[in-house]
Design a protein that fits this description.
Blueprint: H1 5-15, H2 19-28, H3 33-50, E1 58-65, E2 69-77, H4 86-101, H5 107-112, E3 114-115, E4 118-119, H6 120-131, E5 136-144, E6 149-156, E7 161-171, H7 176-193, H8 205-221, H9 228-246, H10 265-277, E8 279-291
Antiparallel strand pairs: 1-2, 2-5, 3-4, 6-7, 7-8
């Protein structure tokens, strides 16, 4: 079959791929438009494989809230300008719509979702062919809403960091907007101070052991002679100090104008916000923190 300029242009309009690549695909498929589109998509997978070793540390974190859930995902790329590319943004918006309307729980669920008759992963392959960068959905997490809870969402530096917090309360809040703001304030806290866990019980055992080793080495390096029982107390004290820095509910709430008493996040929510809203209890029960490229 003769490969005409109009046929090549039609494929280009369908896929956004360069003219020479479109012509080559049509030649290989003997002018079959559907097969040519499929071939280009397969080549998109090849592009991803070839560039898998390229660092994809740019992109954006996207946050979604619906009536029954809140979710976050990262769409990564190699260079910052690509994150503003129309095709990249359209792919991200498609993924957002999938999360809003479907039961998505993993990255694979997201890629396999169908939106407006198109599979998210097929569109991803099209974008790979057009942009020729390592682009992929890197992370996904979701929190299912429970009764008497409120979400707070905060995006920092145009999606470099994205945080979702969930507060649970007992009673009837006097001001729903203030409750949402409190949840967002805690999300801002997590964005700024990068906690690794919600509470002490959630800190990985290996993290605690590592901190104990560091504390012991620091004490020994000081050159001071310390009895074994005193050594353990000092180690425990140093580890406890570190935990206050890496555990969200134990961190000092950072907004000094709202927290003149320098209360921890846990105490600030209970002693200040809960009282202001007429609640008997208010606490953080969940959080997601994604940082681009990590």
């Amino acid at each position: 079959m003769q490969i005409t300029a109009s046929l090549v242009n039609e494929l280009r309009q369908k896929t956004g791929v360069g003219m020479m690549q479109c012509k080559k695909a049509l030649v290989e498929t003997d002018g079959d438009m559907d097969k040519a589109v499929e071939l280009l998509r397969k080549q998109g997978a090849a592009v991803a494989a070839k560039r898998a070793d390229k660092a994809a540390k740019e992109g954006r974190i996207y946050l979604i809230e619906t009536a029954d859930k809140a979710a976050a995902f990262e769409l990564s790329c190699e260079t910052e300008p690509v994150s503003n590319n129309d095709d990249f943004v359209a792919l991200a918006n498609m993924a957002v719509k999938a999360v809003e309307t479907q039961d998505i729980n993993t990255v694979e669920d997201l890629k396999n979702a169908v939106v407006d008759g198109k599979k998210v992963n097929d569109v991803l392959q099209d974008v790979l062919v057009k942009i020729q960068e390592n682009i992929d959905f890197r992370k996904f997490a979701v929190i299912k809403k429970v009764p008497n809870s409120a979400f707070g969402l905060y995006s920092h530096m145009k999606g470099k960091i994205g945080v979702i917090t969930e507060l649970a309360y007992e009673g009837t809040p006097s001001d729903e907007a203030a409750l949402k703001q409190a949840a967002k304030d805690i999300a801002m806290q997590a964005a700024a101070f990068a906690p690794v866990a919600l509470n002490d019980a959630a800190v990985p055992a290996e993290t605690i052991e590592k901190e104990k080793e560091i504390a012991k080495a620091q004490i020994e390096a000081s050159g001071k002679q310390t009895k074994p029982e005193f050594m353990q107390r000092q180690i425990d004290g140093r580890v406890a100090k570190v935990l206050k820095e890496i555990v969200l509910e134990d961190q000092e709430f950072f907004m000094s104008e709202k927290n003149p008493k320098k209360l921890s996040v846990k105490d600030y929510l209970q002693e200040v916000v809960a009282k202001q809203l007429g609640l008997s209890s208010l606490k953080v029960v969940n959080f997601i923190r994604f940082e681009r490229g990590n």
